[in-house]
UniProtKB/TrEMBL annotation:
<keyword id="KW-0288">FMN</keyword>
<comment type="subunit">
    <text>The complex is composed of six subunits: RnfA, RnfB, RnfC, RnfD, RnfE and RnfG.</text>
</comment>
<dbReference type="GO" id="GO:0022900">
    <property type="term" value="P:electron transport chain"/>
</dbReference>
<keyword id="KW-1003">Cell membrane</keyword>
<keyword id="KW-0812">Transmembrane</keyword>
<comment type="function">
    <text>Part of a membrane-bound complex that couples electron transfer with translocation of ions across the membrane.</text>
</comment>
<keyword id="KW-0997">Cell inner membrane</keyword>
<keyword id="KW-0813">Transport</keyword>
<keyword id="KW-0285">Flavoprotein</keyword>
<keyword id="KW-1278">Translocase</keyword>
<dbReference type="GO" id="GO:0005886">
    <property type="term" value="C:plasma membrane"/>
</dbReference>
<dbReference type="Pfam" id="PF04205">
    <property type="entry name" value="FMN_bind"/>
</dbReference>
<keyword id="KW-1133">Transmembrane helix</keyword>
<dbReference type="InterPro" id="IPR007329">
    <property type="entry name" value="FMN-bd"/>
</dbReference>
<protein>
    <recommendedName>
        <fullName>Ion-translocating oxidoreductase complex subunit G</fullName>
        <ecNumber>7.-.-.-</ecNumber>
    </recommendedName>
</protein>
<dbReference type="GO" id="GO:0009055">
    <property type="term" value="F:electron transfer activity"/>
</dbReference>
<keyword id="KW-0472">Membrane</keyword>
Length: 212
């Protein structure tokens, strides 16, 4: 009888410890995700929990991937403040480039960050903020600034610098950010209105950029 009680107590302790460990891991993961979003969604600009107020979108013509991507919604007092959109630049030099694009309710870029890429070290990896400040040149921009036809690298007649010896990588990122902005411009109300956890499917894509 005593052995049985001891075994039962031991199992109970293990269950409690395992539960506490799971909670700590979940809390750490949540904090890590918040930190990742902070670069494109300033802390203090919202009062909801964006990680819990997210939807999935399938929009290959707009966001560069056939897979479901995540859109996080930031709100203050229930009103829309900002979206953070997962997006993909499918035509990087060495493969797809995964992005987070923050867009505020005025349809201006709050920030852009690369979350995964395979670009050439020393050349294409200048899209990383630790390597250069190039990625921050999107901040504050919109589809009207620069004019739509100038959402290109300078070599193509646009407003955005390319890298020395590497044009394909920045060209791909500029195109992806412009397409993401166009997506939010076209579908922003639906993105904010959908219930958290829902998956939305969007056909079509942005019209071709006008000539610069």
């Amino acid at each position: 009888m005593l052995l049985g009680l001891a075994a039962l107590l031991a199992v109970g302790v293990l269950v409690v410890v395992e539960s506490m460990t799971r909670e700590r891991i979940a809390a750490a993961e949540y904090e890590a995700q918040l930190q990742a979003l902070a670069a494109v969604m300033p802390v203090g600009s919202y009062d909801n929990r964006p990680l819990d107020d997210a939807i999935n979108v399938v929009a290959p013509g707009w966001l560069g991937s056939d897979k479901a991507l995540v859109v996080w919604r930031a709100r203050r007092a229930g009103s829309p403040v900002q979206l953070v959109v997962q997006s993909v630049a499918p035509r990087g030099y060495s493969g797809p480039i995964d992005l987070l694009v923050g867009v505020d309710d005025a349809r201006q870029v709050v920030g852009v960050r690369v979350t995964r890429h395979q670009e050439t070290p020393g050349l294409g990896d200048a899209i990383e903020p630790r390597r250069s400040g190039w990625i921050d040149r999107f901040t504050g921009r919109s589809l009207g600034d620069p004019a739509l036809g100038r959402w290109r690298v300078r070599r193509d007649g646009g407003d955005f610098d390319q890298f020395t010896g590497a044009t394909i990588t920045p060209r791909a990122v500029v195109a992806a950010v412009a397409s993401t902005l166009a997506f939010v411009e076209a579908h922003g109300p639906a993105l904010y209105a959908a219930p958290a956890g829902e998956t939305l499917v969007f056909d079509g894509g942005p019209p071709p950029l006008p000539r610069p």
